[in-house]
């Protein structure tokens, strides 16, 4: 709640501009946020025919909406300054690029714009009722609930849940992007988004310690970077407005990356973020014929598999880079040491290709324990995927500033790609690492095991 209160106290004036050619998202001033706004919902339809110029629709006029196609609703959340969401245009454009569908932007800025969060949250059920009236007309004209997809951001996620509940969970799909936590944490299922609100519910939690909801809310709940502080976001209040909204909004940008960027973000079902970081869940715990779940638009590829689970729910963890396209590439670093005494410490590994590109992974979230002739498998995460690695460097550290410098004697090091298991595994034998000294070497292709 602290971030929420600080956010409200630091809100700046946003200018309202009413000059427009095409219907667009409502722009309100900070004055409107201070005095509050009554609820008014505007539905803006985008299709292949009108990709950039919205058409106003309502339950009496469906406009260009084709009821035989998927209809995707995009629902924003709390708007404390009255400004339009900066990501809305990109999301609409990206959705229309991946599939020929109807995209309906649910503009409830008049209602969501207020500096008093409780006033905005109190209007969420009323928004849901208006959306049900519109969907009823789609159904009356031959549409199907199977083709209804709702993407809800923050408060919008719970609005989606309320709509789904009114249809007894028969909506095709709901995606919750960092569902709002304040006033919803700990509430019963009927008062928030819930797995039973649609045939498939996927959720991205990116700010569970502040503005987002911590506990699982869907059939699959994704926790980027554990759901806490997101890489690249300000860590202190000196980051200004970004400090308050960056983690919360990262869920939207990760979803956008699944639509437009040239990388598919795989996540790993696991009991905890710690277990994921320690490499305990990278097999996905499933048969080889089923790939790991993908974040974002294509998350429903796991729908049929999850139906077989009891209950049909799972949590999935992954790490991201600090900038677009956010992709991280996973490798295992297997180390067999031959020190007489146990060594505990962290490893920094760098990969270099023949063109001089370098990518680095710091495996330092908790000390690894190296014992004589025991293999330690460390999960390394790189922001580049180098196809042909020409050189590798390793650096060992105990984290001690004072005291003796230790050596880590390595009998064998093996590097293997998780994303591309067909690639040759790379090895190095008989290597001595001096503490805090980077050691470069050329790897060789590991010999294949003889059967």
TrEMBL record:
One of its GO terms (biological process) is phosphatidic acid biosynthetic process. The keyword Cell membrane applies. Pfam families: Lipase. GO terms for molecular function: carboxylic ester hydrolase activity; heparin binding; metal ion binding; phospholipase activity. It is found in: Cell membrane; Secreted. Keywords: Calcium, Cell membrane, Disulfide bond, Glycoprotein, Hydrolase, Lipid degradation, Lipid metabolism, Membrane, Metal-binding, Secreted, Signal. It is a peripheral membrane protein. GO terms for cellular component: extracellular space; plasma membrane. Ca(2+) binds at residues 192, 194, 197. The keyword Repeat does not apply. Its main location: membrane. SUPFAM superfamilies: alpha/beta-Hydrolases. The active site is at residues 154, 178, 248. It catalyses: 1-hexadecanoyl-2-(9Z-octadecenoyl)-sn-glycero-3-phosphate + H2O = 2-(9Z-octadecenoyl)-sn-glycero-3-phosphate + hexadecanoate + H(+). Belongs to the AB hydrolase superfamily. Lipase family. Interacts with TTMP/C3orf52. Hydrolyzes specifically phosphatidic acid (PA) to produce 2-acyl lysophosphatidic acid (LPA; a potent bioactive lipid mediator) and fatty acid. Does not hydrolyze other phospholipids, like phosphatidylserine (PS), phosphatidylcholine (PC) and phosphatidylethanolamine (PE) or triacylglycerol (TG). This is Lipase member H. It comes from Castor canadensis. The gene is Liph.
């Amino acid at each position: 709640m602290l971030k929420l209160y600080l956010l409200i106290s630091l809100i700046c004036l946003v200018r309202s501009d009413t000059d427009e050619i095409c219907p667009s998202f409502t722009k309100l001033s900070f004055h409107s946020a201070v005095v509050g706004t009554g609820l008014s919902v505007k539905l803006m339809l985008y299709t292949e025919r009108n990709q950039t110029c919205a058409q106003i629709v309502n339950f009496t006029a469906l406009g260009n909406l084709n009821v035989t196609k998927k209809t995707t609703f995009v629902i924003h959340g709390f708007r404390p300054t009255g400004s339009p969401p900066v990501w809305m245009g990109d999301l609409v454009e990206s959705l229309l690029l991946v599939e020929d569908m109807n995209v309906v932007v649910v503009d409830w800025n008049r209602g969501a714009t207020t500096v008093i969060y409780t006033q905005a949250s109190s209007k969420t059920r009323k928004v849901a009722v208006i959306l049900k009236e519109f969907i009823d007309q789609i159904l009356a004209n031959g549409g199907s609930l199977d083709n209804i997809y709702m993407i809800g951001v923050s408060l919008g996620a719970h609005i989606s849940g309320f709509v789904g509940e009114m249809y007894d969970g028969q909506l095709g799909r709901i995606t919750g992007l960092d569902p709002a936590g304040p006033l919803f944490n700990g509430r019963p299922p009927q008062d928030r988004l819930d797995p039973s609100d649609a045939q498939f519910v996927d959720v991205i939690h990116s700010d569970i310690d502040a503005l987002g909801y911590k506990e699982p809310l869907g059939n699959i709940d994704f926790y980027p970077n554990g759901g806490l502080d997101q890489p690249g976001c300000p860590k202190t209040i000196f980051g200004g407005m970004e400090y308050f909204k960056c983690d919360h909004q990262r869920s939207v940008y990760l979803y956008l990356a699944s639509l437009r960027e040239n990388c598919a973000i795989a996540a790993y079902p696991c009991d905890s973020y710690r277990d994921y970081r320690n490499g305990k869940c990278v097999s996905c715990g499933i048969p080889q014929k089923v790939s790991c779940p993908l974040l974002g638009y294509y998350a429903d590829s796991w729908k049929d598999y999850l139906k077989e689970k009891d209950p049909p729910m799972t949590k999935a963890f992954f790490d991201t880079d600090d900038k677009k396209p956010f992709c991280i590439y996973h490798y295992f670093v297997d180390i067999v040491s031959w020190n007489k005494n146990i060594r505990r410490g962290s490893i920094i590994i760098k990969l270099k290709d023949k063109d001089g590109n370098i990518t680095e992974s710091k495996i330092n979230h908790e000390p690894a324990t190296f014992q004589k002739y025991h293999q330690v498998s460390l999960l390394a995460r790189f922001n580049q995927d180098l196809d042909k690695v020409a050189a590798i460097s390793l650096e060992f550290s105990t984290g001690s500033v004072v005291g003796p410098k230790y050596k880590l004697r390595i009998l064998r090091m093996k590097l293997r790609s998780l994303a591309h298991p067909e690639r040759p595994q790379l090895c190095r034998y008989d290597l001595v690492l001096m503490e805090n000294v980077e050691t470069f070497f050329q790897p060789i292709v590991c010999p294949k095991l003889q059967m």
